Amino acid sequence: MSEIDRRAVLASLMAAGAAAASTRAAAAATVKPDDIKKEAEVACLYHCDFGETPRFAQMLNNISNHYSVYGSNPFDIQLVTVVHSVGVKFFLETLEGTAWRNETVPAELFERVASLAKNGLTVYLCDITFQRLKLDRDKVRKADFIRFVPSGVATIAALQSKGFAYLKVG
């Protein structure tokens, strides 16, 4: 997609995002890894397969710092998060009925993700995780920046082959 097309699309998405913030967005769509394009010279994927709240918060700090270096300009940098395994819990409306039902995820973590999404962050959730853990996709928070991919690890490999750098908070 050309830079002009990308600007028009992002402007439209930002307007749609504002409207979606006041009303619940539709359930997250599923995209194939081949359909995810590298749209900026600097592109990076953050891998989240962990469930520790401090580690997730640190990943969000890193993403925020990453954006700050580029003036939070979504045309200069493209960041995505690929989430599978226990990491999906940070994107659920409720943990009831899950293996994490006795845990609490601080609400401000998702608010931080939503704030980063205003800079262009896209979150890709692994459908295999939802199938294997018997998680209801309807429990996923409704946001236009959340999408499903068939497999988190396959998406990570596909994005790396397209030139996305790989980062994981350890």
What does this structure look like?
By secondary structure, the chain is α/β, with parallel strands linked by helices. The protein has a single domain, classed as 3-Layer(aba) Sandwich (Hypothetical Protein Ychn, Chain: A), CATH 3.40.1260.10. Helices cover 38% and strands 16% of the residues. The chain contains 5 helices and 6 strands; from the N terminus they run αββαβαβαβαβ. The protein has helices at residues 3-22, 53-69, 107-117, 127-132, 152-161; strands spanning 29-30, 42-48, 77-83, 122-126, 146-149, 165-167. The chain has a 6-stranded parallel beta sheet, sandwiched between helices. Helix 2 links the parallel strand 2 and strand 3 (77-83). Helix 2 (53-69) runs parallel beside helix 3 (107-117). Residues 18-26 have low confidence and may be disordered.
